């Protein structure tokens, strides 16, 4: 049987519609916690270097194909990847769902109290839902016990339906997985820089640039400090070439 994976990471072909249906079904009858992971070229390279991160990705109940590089790699390798579903786009859809269904939403992370500012903004915009924002943790690589205890005390009291964590990948996914017990009965999603985009602090690439696969270049021009991270894109291309060669 043909394996539907790229770089030994299982790809579950999804559409935004099927993803939203799964999330809504879980919210109606929550069991454990639901972890959503966004796949892109950068974090898939990290998964080839970090076994723990790879296990976290593989055990996530929902994996969305966020990066255009993964979509193009799938086409080239003959792997079905489904519809491209961006993390920012899915988060926006879930915020609307929260309003329609009167859900509680918790935003953790980001910079300069961005989560708190976004929560206040959405409380004014979506009057039927409830939003709470937390700065969270100063150093996600070395989280402070007191900081974490404060977060999970709020989680236990607030009982959010949706949790968005913006610590950057892979740190946010590893942190979420470590605390799956504390996030019981929650839909939890690592959203990286989504808070920056939604707040308007960072300009998102125009749709046409995203479609042709040059969003990475747009980001690099606007955020030149990302150049080291962008090197992973070249490694991703090399790994995909190796995988293609093995298939011959």
TrEMBL record:
CDD domains: Glyco_transf_WecG_TagA (cd06533). One of its GO terms (molecular function) is hexosyltransferase activity. InterPro entries: WecG_TagA_CpsF (IPR004629). Keywords: Glycosyltransferase, Transferase. This is Glycosyltransferase. It comes from Candidatus Roizmanbacteria bacterium CG22_combo_CG10-13_8_21_14_all_34_12.
């Amino acid at each position: 049987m043909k394996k539907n994976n790229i770089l030994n990471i299982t790809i579950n072909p999804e559409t935004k519609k099927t993803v939203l249906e799964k999330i809504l079904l879980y919210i109606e009858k929550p069991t454990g916690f639901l972890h959503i992971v966004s796949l892109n070229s950068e974090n898939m390279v990290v998964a080839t270097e970090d076994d723990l991160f790879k296990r976290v990705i593989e055990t996530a109940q929902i994996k969305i194909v966020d990066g255009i590089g993964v979509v193009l790699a799938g086409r080239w390798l003959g792997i079905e990847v489904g519809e491209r579903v961006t993390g920012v786009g899915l988060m926006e859809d879930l915020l609307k769902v929260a309003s329609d269904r009167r859900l509680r939403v918790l935003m953790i992370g980001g910079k300069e109290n961005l989560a708190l500012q976004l929560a206040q903004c959405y409380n004014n915009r979506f009057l039927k839902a409830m939003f709470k924002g937390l700065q969270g943790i100063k150093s996600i690589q070395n989280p402070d016990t007191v900081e974490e205890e404060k977060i999970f005390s709020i989680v236990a009291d607030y009982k959010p339906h949706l949790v968005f964590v913006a610590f950057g990948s892979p740190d946010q996914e590893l942190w979420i997985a470590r605390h799956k017990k504390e996030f019981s009965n929650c839909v939890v999603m690592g959203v990286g820089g989504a808070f920056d985009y939604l707040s308007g602090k960072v300009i998102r690439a125009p749709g046409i640039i995203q479609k042709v696969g040059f969003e990475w270049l747009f980001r690099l021009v606007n955020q030149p400090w990302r150049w080291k991270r962008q090197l992973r894109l070249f490694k991703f291309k090399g790994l995909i070439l190796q995988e293609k060669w093995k298939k011959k």
